[in-house]
Protein backbone atom coordinates (compact mmCIF):
# COMPACT_ATOMS: atom_id res chain seq x y z
CA UNK A 1 0.00 0.00 0.00
CA UNK A 2 1.48 3.35 -1.06
CA UNK A 3 1.57 5.91 1.76
CA UNK A 4 2.20 9.66 2.06
CA UNK A 5 2.40 11.74 5.27
CA UNK A 6 1.49 15.42 5.31
CA UNK A 7 1.20 18.14 7.93
CA UNK A 8 -0.01 21.54 6.73
CA UNK A 9 0.83 23.74 9.75
CA UNK A 10 1.27 23.71 13.52
CA UNK A 11 -2.48 23.63 14.15
CA UNK A 12 -3.37 20.71 11.88
CA UNK A 13 -2.59 17.13 12.76
CA UNK A 14 -0.40 14.95 10.61
CA UNK A 15 -2.43 13.08 8.01
CA UNK A 16 -1.46 9.82 6.41
CA UNK A 17 -2.80 9.15 2.93
CA UNK A 18 -2.81 5.54 1.75
CA UNK A 19 -3.65 4.21 -1.69
CA UNK A 20 -5.32 0.82 -1.68
CA UNK A 21 -6.48 -0.94 -4.82
CA UNK A 22 -9.91 0.71 -4.86
CA UNK A 23 -9.87 3.60 -2.36
CA UNK A 24 -7.98 6.43 -0.72
CA UNK A 25 -7.58 6.01 3.04
CA UNK A 26 -6.90 9.08 5.21
CA UNK A 27 -5.72 8.69 8.82
CA UNK A 28 -5.02 11.25 11.52
CA UNK A 29 -5.15 11.12 15.32
CA UNK A 30 -8.91 11.58 15.44
CA UNK A 31 -10.00 10.71 11.91
CA UNK A 32 -10.22 7.66 9.71
CA UNK A 33 -11.81 8.06 6.32
CA UNK A 34 -12.04 5.92 3.23
CA UNK A 35 -12.96 7.40 -0.13
CA UNK A 36 -13.61 5.20 -3.15
CA UNK A 37 -11.74 6.37 -6.22
CA UNK A 38 -15.06 6.30 -8.08
CA UNK A 39 -16.32 9.00 -5.65
CA UNK A 40 -13.65 11.44 -6.82
CA UNK A 41 -14.78 13.93 -9.45
CA UNK A 42 -11.62 15.94 -10.06
CA UNK A 43 -7.88 15.82 -9.45
CA UNK A 44 -6.06 19.16 -9.63
CA UNK A 45 -2.28 19.62 -9.71
CA UNK A 46 -0.74 23.07 -9.44
CA UNK A 47 2.42 24.90 -8.56
CA UNK A 48 2.27 27.41 -5.74
CA UNK A 49 5.04 29.34 -4.16
CA UNK A 50 5.19 31.69 -1.20
CA UNK A 51 7.77 33.41 0.92
CA UNK A 52 7.96 30.45 3.31
CA UNK A 53 7.29 27.60 0.93
CA UNK A 54 9.32 28.02 -2.20
CA UNK A 55 8.75 25.67 -5.11
CA UNK A 56 5.66 24.07 -3.65
CA UNK A 57 3.54 21.60 -5.59
CA UNK A 58 -0.08 21.08 -4.58
CA UNK A 59 -2.59 18.30 -5.22
CA UNK A 60 -6.32 18.82 -4.63
CA UNK A 61 -8.87 16.03 -4.83
CA UNK A 62 -12.51 17.01 -5.24
CA UNK A 63 -15.21 14.51 -4.30
CA UNK A 64 -18.61 14.17 -5.97
CA UNK A 65 -20.06 15.97 -2.92
CA UNK A 66 -17.72 18.94 -3.52
CA UNK A 67 -15.35 18.31 -0.61
CA UNK A 68 -11.72 19.24 -1.26
CA UNK A 69 -8.80 17.22 0.07
CA UNK A 70 -5.46 18.91 -0.34
CA UNK A 71 -1.80 18.10 0.27
CA UNK A 72 1.53 19.49 -0.90
CA UNK A 73 5.12 18.35 -1.21
CA UNK A 74 6.11 20.26 1.95
CA UNK A 75 5.75 18.90 5.51
CA UNK A 76 5.44 21.39 8.35
CA UNK A 77 8.30 21.13 10.91
CA UNK A 78 8.10 24.37 12.88
CA UNK A 79 7.30 28.03 12.32
CA UNK A 80 8.63 28.98 8.89
CA UNK A 81 10.36 25.58 8.45
CA UNK A 82 9.10 22.92 6.12
CA UNK A 83 10.56 19.56 5.20
CA UNK A 84 10.83 18.99 1.46
CA UNK A 85 9.38 15.62 0.48
CA UNK A 86 9.32 16.15 -3.27
CA UNK A 87 10.35 12.61 -4.17
CA UNK A 88 7.72 11.02 -1.95
CA UNK A 89 5.07 13.45 -3.22
CA UNK A 90 5.92 12.76 -6.86
CA UNK A 91 5.80 8.99 -6.34
CA UNK A 92 2.48 9.20 -4.46
CA UNK A 93 0.84 11.45 -7.07
CA UNK A 94 2.00 9.21 -9.93
CA UNK A 95 0.68 6.12 -8.12
CA UNK A 96 -2.63 7.89 -7.46
CA UNK A 97 -2.98 8.67 -11.18
CA UNK A 98 -2.33 4.99 -11.97
CA UNK A 99 -5.15 4.02 -9.58
CA UNK A 100 -7.46 6.53 -11.28
CA UNK A 101 -6.80 4.97 -14.70
CA UNK A 102 -7.95 1.60 -13.34
CA UNK A 103 -10.78 2.68 -11.01
CA UNK A 104 -12.09 6.03 -12.24
CA UNK A 105 -11.26 6.64 -15.91
CA UNK A 106 -13.82 9.47 -16.07
CA UNK A 107 -12.08 11.63 -13.46
CA UNK A 108 -11.25 15.15 -14.62
CA UNK A 109 -7.53 15.85 -14.30
CA UNK A 110 -6.72 19.54 -14.31
CA UNK A 111 -3.31 21.15 -14.23
CA UNK A 112 -2.47 24.70 -13.21
CA UNK A 113 -4.73 27.60 -12.32
CA UNK A 114 -8.32 28.14 -13.39
CA UNK A 115 -8.46 29.76 -16.82
CA UNK A 116 -9.99 33.09 -15.75
CA UNK A 117 -7.71 33.39 -12.70
CA UNK A 118 -4.68 32.62 -14.84
CA UNK A 119 -5.35 35.28 -17.48
CA UNK A 120 -6.55 37.88 -14.98
CA UNK A 121 -3.43 37.52 -12.82
CA UNK A 122 -1.21 37.44 -15.91
CA UNK A 123 -2.65 40.73 -17.20
CA UNK A 124 -2.41 42.39 -13.77
CA UNK A 125 1.20 41.27 -13.30
CA UNK A 126 2.13 42.49 -16.81
CA UNK A 127 0.58 45.88 -16.06
CA UNK A 128 2.44 46.07 -12.74
CA UNK A 129 5.71 45.13 -14.42
CA UNK A 130 5.16 47.78 -17.10
CA UNK A 131 4.49 50.37 -14.38
CA UNK A 132 7.60 49.23 -12.50
CA UNK A 133 9.68 49.45 -15.68
CA UNK A 134 8.53 53.01 -16.41
CA UNK A 135 9.11 54.06 -12.80
CA UNK A 136 12.58 52.51 -12.47
CA UNK A 137 13.82 53.70 -15.87
CA UNK A 138 12.64 57.23 -15.10
CA UNK A 139 14.39 57.15 -11.71
CA UNK A 140 17.53 55.14 -12.49
CA UNK A 141 17.90 55.40 -16.24
CA UNK A 142 18.65 52.29 -18.33
CA UNK A 143 19.98 50.42 -15.27
CA UNK A 144 16.36 50.31 -13.99
CA UNK A 145 15.64 47.56 -16.53
CA UNK A 146 17.68 45.00 -14.55
CA UNK A 147 15.24 44.51 -11.62
CA UNK A 148 12.33 44.28 -14.04
CA UNK A 149 14.11 41.53 -16.01
CA UNK A 150 14.57 39.61 -12.74
CA UNK A 151 10.85 39.91 -11.89
CA UNK A 152 9.80 38.93 -15.41
CA UNK A 153 12.03 35.85 -15.24
CA UNK A 154 10.67 34.77 -11.82
CA UNK A 155 7.04 35.33 -12.80
CA UNK A 156 7.45 33.58 -16.15
CA UNK A 157 8.43 30.39 -14.30
CA UNK A 158 5.30 30.65 -12.15
CA UNK A 159 3.02 31.25 -15.14
CA UNK A 160 4.67 28.49 -17.16
CA UNK A 161 4.08 25.91 -14.40
CA UNK A 162 0.49 27.08 -13.79
CA UNK A 163 -0.72 27.22 -17.37
CA UNK A 164 -4.31 25.85 -17.35
CA UNK A 165 -4.58 22.43 -18.92
CA UNK A 166 -6.79 19.35 -18.97
CA UNK A 167 -4.75 16.17 -19.10
CA UNK A 168 -5.21 12.42 -19.10
CA UNK A 169 -4.15 10.54 -15.92
CA UNK A 170 -1.62 8.56 -17.96
CA UNK A 171 0.12 11.76 -19.16
CA UNK A 172 0.85 13.99 -16.16
CA UNK A 173 2.54 17.19 -17.34
CA UNK A 174 6.12 17.26 -15.97
CA UNK A 175 5.84 20.93 -15.05
CA UNK A 176 3.21 20.04 -12.42
CA UNK A 177 5.48 17.65 -10.53
CA UNK A 178 8.71 18.27 -8.63
CA UNK A 179 11.82 17.23 -10.50
CA UNK A 180 13.00 13.72 -9.73
CA UNK A 181 16.49 13.63 -8.31
Structure description:
- The protein has two domains: 2-112 and 164-176, PH-domain like (Roll); 115-156.
- It is an alpha+beta fold and 181 residues long.
- The protein is elongated.
- The model has no long low-confidence stretch (mean pLDDT 89).
- 34% of the residues lie in helices and 33% in strands.
Oligomer: single chain
Unreliable spans: none
By CATH, the architecture of the largest domain is named Roll
Query: Which sequence of strands runs across the widest sheet?
Result: 7-6-5-10-11
The number of E-state strands comes to 11
The helix/strand series, from N terminus to C terminus, equals: EEEEEEEEEHEHHE
Structural class estimated from helices and strands? alpha+beta
Number of helices: 3
Main beta sheet strand tally, sense and closure: 5 strands, mixed
CA radius of gyration is 19 Å
Give the mean pLDDT.
89
CATH topology of the largest domain: PH-domain like
- Taken together, the total number of domains comes to 2
Helix percentage range:
25-40%
What's the CATH H-level homologous superfamily of the largest domain? Answer: Pleckstrin-homology domain (PH domain)/Phosphotyrosine-binding domain (PTB)
- N-to-C terminal Cα separation, in Å? 23 Å
Amino acid sequence: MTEYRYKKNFIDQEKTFQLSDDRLIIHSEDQHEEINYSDLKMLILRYSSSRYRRRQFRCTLVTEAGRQIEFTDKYYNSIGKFYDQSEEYRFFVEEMHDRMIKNNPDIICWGGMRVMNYYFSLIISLLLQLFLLILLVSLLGPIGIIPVIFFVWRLSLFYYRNKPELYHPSAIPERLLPESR
